[in-house]
From TrEMBL:
Its main location: mitochondrion. Keywords: Ion transport, Membrane, Mitochondrion, Mitochondrion outer membrane, Porin, Transmembrane, Transmembrane beta strand, Transport. This is Voltage-dependent ion-selective channel. One of its GO terms (molecular function) is voltage-gated monoatomic anion channel activity. It is found in: Mitochondrion outer membrane. InterPro entries: Porin_dom_sf (IPR023614), Porin_Euk (IPR001925), Porin_Euk/Tom40 (IPR027246). Belongs to the eukaryotic mitochondrial porin family. It comes from Rhizophagus irregularis. One of its GO terms (cellular component) is mitochondrial outer membrane.
Length: 287
């Protein structure tokens, strides 16, 4: 049996990252609606209102997949007047190879950017390389090697004009069907994050996160603990607490097929000022 294809560099420790980051719609009201036409074109409309500033941001995105050539075409337009376009070709030239071209433009200011690159994945290997043509230009890339559950990867960003690495990092992890652990060293080896995730049972997931940044004046390590409990197949609750006294709560309920609502809140137990507490709601519609 061949070795499995490892996760991408950014997805190492994803189970723990999702446990602490997803399904907590704090500080905003969000509505997302996705529909798919009979010809396979999907349309996604997203609107988000910040409860503090009152600003409203939205995006209209369309995506079409062309299976004969392994091509995916994506376009979007945001309320900030940014036009985005993306073309992806996967397995068309070689198995495991995906070509990617992304372009965006701001008509009001004339600012634009073009980025192109490729992703190559094979058993035991997953790598990405991109060229940011108009910013720098810069090369960005990462590589992950996996063997029997162990993962090790590295990333870097090289500025062609300055002739130096502007960012680099390394990550190592171990993945098991019931648990995984990852250590991420980012920001040019100055920030350290340890992630742990455990599927305790079919109903309970738990995790821990430790973070320390050597470039800050704070010598303390920020600790965070979280858990997810499935009430039934259509609903779950989540909670998290960190060493600074911030508590996060979340509740997600599938009202019917294609309709999901999430409620979230963040409470700062170290501050009695009610302005320190934030709440939010997210509604997802799909048909």
């Amino acid at each position: 049996m061949s070795a499995p294809i490892p996760a991408t560099y950014s997805d190492i420790g994803k189970s723990a990252s999702d446990l602490f980051g997803k399904d907590f719609p704090v500080g905003s009201f969000k509505l997302e609606s996705k529909t798919t036409a009979p010809n396979g074109v999907s349309f996604t409309l997203t609107g988000l209102k910040d409860t503090k500033s009152g600003n409203i941001n939205g995006e209209l995105k369309s995506k079409y997949y062309y299976p004969k050539r392994g091509g995916t075409f994506t376009g979007s337009w945001t309320t900030s007047n940014i036009l985005n376009g993306q073309v992806e070709l996967e397995n068309s030239l070689a198995k495991g190879l995906k070509l990617d071209l992304v372009a965006n433009i701001q008509p009001a200011s004339g600012n634009r950017n073009v980025r192109g690159g490729f992703t190559f994945k094979q058993p035991g290997l997953h790598t990405k390389v991109y060229l940011d043509a108009l910013k720098g230009p810069t090369f960005q890339g990462d590589i992950v090697v996996g063997h029997e559950g162990f993962l090790i990867g590295s990333e870097g960003c090289y500025d062609v004009l300055e002739g130096k690495l502007t960012r680099y990092g390394v990550t190592a992890g171990y993945t098991h069907p019931e648990y995984n652990v990852a250590l991420r060293v980012t920001n040019s080896l100055s920030a350290y994050t340890l992630l742990y995730y455990h599927r305790v049972s079919s109903e309970i997931e738990a995790g821990a996160k430790a973070h320390w940044d050597s470039q800050t004046n704070n010598p303390s390590v920020n600790l965070e603990f979280g858990a997810k409990y499935f009430l039934d197949r259509d609903a779950f609750i989540k909670g998290k607490v960190d060493s600074t006294g911030k508590v996060g709560i979340g509740y997600t309920q599938a009202l019917r097929p294609g309709v999901k609502i999430s409620l979230g809140g963040s409470i700062d137990t170290s501050r009695l000022n009610e302005n320190a507490h934030r709440f939010g709601i997210s509604i997802n519609l799909e048909s």
